[in-house]
Amino acid sequence: MAPARPLTLDDALTALAAGPARILAGGTDLLAATGPRLSGPVLDLSGVADLAAIETTDAGWRIGAGVTWSALADAHLPPVFDALKAAARQVGSIQIQNRATLAGNLCNASPAADGVPALIALDAVVETASPAGRRRLPVASFILGPRRTALDPGEIVSAIIVPPQPDGAVSVFSKLGSRHYLVISIAMVAVVLAAEDGVVTAARVAVGACSPVAVRLGALEASLVGRPLADVAAIPAADHLAPLSPIDDVRASSAYRMDAALVLVRRALADAAGRLP
C-alpha cells in the first residue's frame, strides 16, 4: 500500500482521523525499526510545507516539526541556539541529518536522543495538533520514558516552540561517545548561560543519556546564579547530579556515566562562560 501523502496539516489530521497509521517524516527511525517493507497504513508528512519552516514570532521561535537537522544547523539563529546546532551536527551521519527531523527525534523518545538536552535547556515546548485543536507541552513532559511520549491517538507534532531567551545568552553542547562520529551517546550535556557585568544571571543545565529522559539539574542551576563567570566551572559537584539515574549497558557502566557527566558539565560551563563578555 502506497503511503498517503497530504500537502497540508489539516489534510494530514483528516487522514489520521480515518484510522490509525504510522507517521513517516524523515523515516530514519521508522525504517530502522521496521525494515524497508512497512506494514499497514503509512502517513507521509514530508509534503506538508508548513511543517518545514522556521519562524520568529512574538512567542519566540517556531521550528516546524518537519525541519531537518541539516536545515536547523544552517539556519540563521542567535548564539543561544549553538548547543542545538551542535547537536544537529551529531545526529547520525550527514545523510541522516538531511532526512531526520526534530519531531522525529522527540517522538522516537530515545534516552540518548542528541537533540533533547539542548531543547530542554532552551525551555522548548512541543506543540501538537489534532482535530480537537492544539496543545503545548514542555519537552520534558512530552517524553515520558524510553520510546514513550504524551502524544495522543490522532495527534501530530506540529512544531517546537522556543520561548524568548535571556539577553545575550549563549549555549554549549558536549557529548561523549566511543568515537566522534556516528555514535550513540554515553553522556551529553547542554548548557544555556547568561551574565551581566561578569556575574551569572541565568543558567540552565540539562544532561542526556544518563536517565530515562534528559533532565535539568535544578540545584546546580540555582547555585550558579549570582556567581562570577570565572567560578562557574568549579561549582558543579557530584551531589548536583542527584536527578540522574544512569544504567549499565554495552556502552558504559552507570558509575562511568556519572563521572563523565560531571566532567562534561564542568567543561560545558567553562566553554559557555568563555563565550560571554
From TrEMBL:
Q: Where is the FAD-binding PCMH-type domain?
A: 1-167
- Protein's UniProt name: Xanthine dehydrogenase
Keywords for the protein's UniProt record, in alphabetical order:
FAD, Flavoprotein, Oxidoreductase
What stretches pass through the bilayer? none
Q: Which PROSITE patterns match?
A: FAD_PCMH
Which Pfam families does the record cross-reference, listed alphabetically?
CO_deh_flav_C, FAD_binding_5
Classify the source by domain of life.
Bacteria
Family annotation (Gene3D superfamilies):
3.30.465.10, CO dehydrogenase flavoprotein, C-terminal domain, Uridine Diphospho-n-acetylenolpyruvylglucosamine Reductase, domain 2
Q: Which GO terms describe its molecular function?
A: FAD binding; oxidoreductase activity
Q: Is tRNA processing tagged as a keyword?
A: no
